[in-house]
Amino acid sequence: MTTDKPLPGDFLSMHYAVPFVLDDGASRSLHFTLGELQSRMRLDSPCGLEVDYTRTMMGFLLFNPAPGHIGMIGLGGGSIAKFCHRFLPASRMTVLEINPHVIALRSDFQVPPDDARFEVLAADGALYLHTQAPRYDVLLVDGFDPDGQPAALCSQRFYDDCLAALPDGGVLVVNLHYDHPDYPLLFERIRRSVGGNAVEIVTLEKSNSIVFARKGAPISPQALSLAGSLAGLDARARAVLKPELARMLWQMKNLDTGDDR
Question: What is the pLDDT of residues 119-134, one digit of tens each?
Answer without folding.
Answer: 999 999 999 999 999 9
